[in-house]
Write a structure and sequence with these properties.
Dehydroquinate synthase-like, alpha domain; 3 domains; seven-stranded mixed sheet; three-stranded antiparallel sheet; 16% strand
C-alpha cells in the first residue's frame, strides 16, 4: 500500500478521510476496521468492476474479520433507477444486513450514487464506504455525500445527502478503465480548473501527454487537488443551498443531454464537456469571460481527446428537460458561468432563456469544436526523423546561408557541428501547426529544415506548396518573416498556447524513451 495523499472532509460528526494512493483495495479491510466499522460488509458493485476487484476486496475484508456479501448490479447509467435499487434492497434483506453492518460501493459514479442512497435509506441509514474505481468518481461523485438515482424526467431527482465513513481512491484501478471512460473523467478535472483553480487549469494544459499516459504520480496530484477543492466547497455548503452549486459548471446542459439521450448517447463526462463549452460561450456573451477563455477550454478538451460534437436536440424537448433540472427553483435555474479561467458567476436563467442561449451559442460552438488536434501514437513520436546536425563547413560553403545565423557565433566559439537548438524542429510539428491553421508557423519550421537539409526535395516542395512561393524564394533567400504573435487574435493565441504545451509533452515522451 502506498498512500500519496490523505485529506479530511470536516463536517463535525460526519467528517471522514479521503485516501488517495496505490494498493488501497488490498488493504481496505484494515482501513475499515480503523475507522470503527464492524459487522458484515455488503459490497455493491457492477458486472464490469466486480470481476476485476471484488475478490481482492473480499479477501482483504475477510482477513480483517468481516463477513462479506457481494451484490452485483448491471453496468450503465440507464440502470441507476428505483427498479435497480429495489433489487439491492432485496439482496440486503436476504443477506440479513442490519444497523450494525455497512455497505461498500465498489465502482464508478453510478455504483457510488446508488449504493450510497441504499445506505442512506436502508433501516433509515447504515454506514458506507466509497471505493471509486473511475477517475470521475475519484475526483467528484465519491466526495461530498450526494447519493441518488435517476427519474425518467431528469437525472438525480431522487436522492439524499449522506456522507460516507471513508473514501479509498485506489489509483491502480484507473489503469483498467477504457479510454472513453478515462477521458470522460478528465472532463470533471477540467471543470475544477475552469471555475476554481486557474493554476490547475494551466497544469492540465502543460501535461496533457502525461495525463493521457495515466502517469500515476501526476494523477495522484491532480486527484488530490480536485478532492481538496471539493472538500473546501462541501465544508461551506454541505447540502447545496449556495456555493456548492458552482460544482455544476457544465452540468445543467450536460444533464439535459444525458436525459434526452436516455443515458445511452453520452457517458456523463462527455455530456459535461459539451455542457462546459456552452457555459464558456454563454459566459463570454454575458461579459464574464472572453473568447480566448472559451477557446482555451475547447482546445484543452480536444487535447484530452473528448468527443465534442453537440447533440441534435429539439428546442421544446431541451426546455422541458431543463425544466426538470433539480436546480430549478420557482422557474429559474442558477446557471454556472466561468469568470475568465479560475473564477465563477451564477446567472439566473429560466429554462426558456437557457434554451435560447443554447440555440444562439450552437453555431459558435460547432465551428470552434470542429478544430481537432492530430492524434499521434508514441511510435509516431519516437520514430519521427529529426534532422541531423550538419558540419560547420557545409554552412561556410553555402553562399545562400543566412548570414544572421552565421554571425550569431564567433569562429572561435563555433563547434565542429551546428547543433539544432529546437528538438521539436520536425515535419510532424510543422504539420500539426498547419492542421490548426497556423500556416506561417509551419512554413517557418520548413524554412529552418530546408536550411539544415538543402538537398531534401520533399521539404523544399512542402514549403513551396504551403506558401505558394516561387522557386526563386529559396535561391534569393527571401523568406517570410516569422509570425508576429502580437497579431494573433486572442482565440488563436489561446489555441497556440495549448498546442505548444501539448508539443512540449511530445518532447518529454521522446526524452523518456
Amino acid at each position: 500500500m502506498n498512500v500519496f495523499h490523505n485529506l479530511t472532509i470536516k463536517l463535525d460528526t460526519r467528517s471522514y478521510d479521503i485516501r488517495i494512493g496505490s494498493g488501497l483495495i488490498a488493504s481496505a479491510g484494515s482501513a475499515c476496521k480503523k475507522v470503527g466499522l464492524s459487522g458484515r460488509a455488503a459490497i455493491i458493485s457492477n458486472t464490469t468492476v466486480a470481476p476485476l476487484y471484488a475478490a481482492q476486496l473480499t479477501e482483504s475484508l475477510q482477513q480483517s474479520g468481516f463477513e462479506t456479501h457481494l451484490i452485483k448490479i448491471p453496468d450503465g447509467e440507464e440502470y441507476k433507477t428505483l427498479a435497480t435499487l429495489g433489487t439491492v434492497y432485496n439482496a440486503l434483506l436476504e443477506a440479513g444486513i442490519d444497523r450494525h453492518d455497512f455497505i461498500i460501493a465498489l465502482g464508478g459514479g453510478v455504483v457510488g450514487d446508488l449504493a450510497g442512497f441504499a445506505a442512506a435509506t436502508w433501516l433509515r441509514g447504515i454506514p458506507f464506504v466509497q471505493i471509486p474505481t473511475t477517475l470521475l468518481a475519484q475526483v467528484d461523485s465519491s466526495v461530498g455525500g450526494k447519493t441518488g438515482v435517476d427519474h425518467s424526467s431528469g437525472k438525480n431527482l431522487i436522492g439524499a445527502f449522506y456522507q460516507p465513513a471513508l473514501v479509498l481512491a485506489d489509483l491502480d484501478t484507473l489503469q483498467t478503465l477504457s479510454k472513453r471512460h478515462y477521458c470522460a473523467g478528465l472532463a470533471e478535472v477540467v471543470k475544477y480548473g475552469m471555475v476554481l483553480d486557474a493554476n490547475l487549469f494551466a497544469k492540465l494544459e502543460a501535461n496533457t501527454g502525461q495525463l493521457l499516459a495515466r502517469d500515476i504520480k501526476l494523477l495522484a496530484e491532480v486527484v488530490a487537488i480536485c478532492c481538496n477543492l471539493k472538500a473546501k466547497v462541501v465544508e461551506q455548503d454541505e447540502r447545496e443551498s449556495g456555493i456548492r452549486a458552482i460544482l455544476n459548471y457544465g452540468h445543467t446542459l450536460g444533464h439535459a443531454f444525458e436525459t434526452l439521450g436516455n443515458y445511452r448517447d453520452f457517458v456523463h463526462g462527455e455530456a459535461v464537456a459539451i455542457g462546459m463549452m456552452f457555459a464558456a460561450e454563454i459566459s463570454r456573451k454575458h461579459g464574464f469571460a472572453d473568447a480566448a477563455d472559451r477557446d482555451r477550454l475547447i482546445a484543452l478538451l480536444q487535447a484530452l481527446q473528448l468527443p465534442l460534437t453537440p447533440p441534435e436536440v429539439e428546442s421544446d424537448k431541451l426546455i422541458l428537460a431543463l425544466s426538470g433540472d433539480k436546480k430549478n427553483r420557482s422557474g429559474s435555474i442558477g446557471y454556472i458561468c466561468n469568470r475568465s479561467v479560475g473564477g465563477y458567476e451564477i446567472l439566473k436563467q429560466t429554462p426558456i432563456e437557457l434554451g435560447m442561449a443554447y440555440r444562439d451559442a450552437l453555431p459558435v460552438i460547432s465551428e470552434n469544436a470542429a478544430m481537432e488536434l492530430v492524434e499521434l501514437s508514441l511510435d509516431d513520436i519516437v520514430m519521427e526523423v529529426v534532422p541531423l546536425p550538419l558540419p560547420i563547413t557545409a554552412w561556410q560553403n553555402d553562399n545562400n546561408a543566412d548570414e544572421k545565423l552565421m554571425s550569431s557565433t564567433t569562429v572561435a566559439d563555433q563547434p565542429d557541428t551546428l547543433i539544432v537548438d529546437d528538438p521539436m524542429l520536425t515535419p510532424t510539428i510543422a504539420e500539426l501547426y498547419h492542421k490548426q491553421g497556423f500556416t506561417d508557423r509551419a512554413m517557418e519550421i520548413y524554412r529552418q529544415l530546408h536550411e539544415l537539409n538543402p538537398e531534401d526535395g520533399q521539404i523544399k516542395a512542402r514549403y513551396l506548396e504551403l506558401g505558394e512561393l516561387a522557386e526563386a524564394t529559396f535561391a534569393q533567400n527571401d523568406v517570410p518573416d516569422k509570425t508576429d504573435e502580437g497579431k494573433l487574435s486572442p482565440e488563436n493565441q489561446a489555441k497556440v498556447t495549448v498546442l505548444e504545451s501539448w508539443l512540449a509533452n511530445i518532447q518529454s515522451l521522446k526524452q523518456a524513451v
